[in-house]
């Protein structure tokens, strides 16, 4: 009986810890639009900073799975020729994600015209 209770406590503790780390990771996502590039940052234990020049963006993708649609959020993905500079911004409200996609696509077209 005691062993069973210890397993239940261990599982509940593991679930709570996993949820806490996932929530902290979600809150660390941030982005900033600058004149020539987009900066995306995230990470709890290891902070990651990605700089994506607008001229290098090949396309910007907005996705929303079934759960994301139910929650009214979407994920914006910027794809470049170099896989290391691909960036993702999850958890944006659907309207904000669509506006960001349109702004990034417009800035990407403006910057790549001279290539």
Plain-language structure description:
- The chain is elongated and about 70 Å long.
- The termini are far apart.
- The protein is an alpha+beta fold.
- Helix content is 45%, strand content 33%.
- The strands form 2 sheets. The protein has a 3-stranded antiparallel β-sheet with strand order 1-2-3.
- The protein has 3 helices and 6 strands.
- It has helices at residues 2-28, 66-71, 94-112, and strands spanning 30-33, 37-42, 48-53, 57-63, 73-80, 87-93.
Query: What spatial form do the alpha-carbon principal axes imply?
Result: elongated
User: Radius of gyration in whole Å, from Cα?
Assistant: 19 Å
Number of helices: 3
Strand arrangement across the biggest beta sheet: 1-2-3
* Helix content class: 40-55%
Largest sheet: 3 strands, antiparallel
Separation, N- and C-terminal Cα atoms: 71 Å
What key phrases describe this protein's structure?
three-stranded antiparallel β-sheet, 3 helices
Summarize the structure.
The protein is α+β, with helices and mostly antiparallel strands and about 120 residues long. It is built from 3 helices and 6 strands, in the order αββββαββα.
List the helices and strands and how they pair.
Elements: H1 2-28, E1 30-33, E2 37-42, E3 48-53, E4 57-63, H2 66-71, E5 73-80, E6 87-93, H3 94-112
Antiparallel strand pairs: 1-2, 2-3, 4-5, 5-6
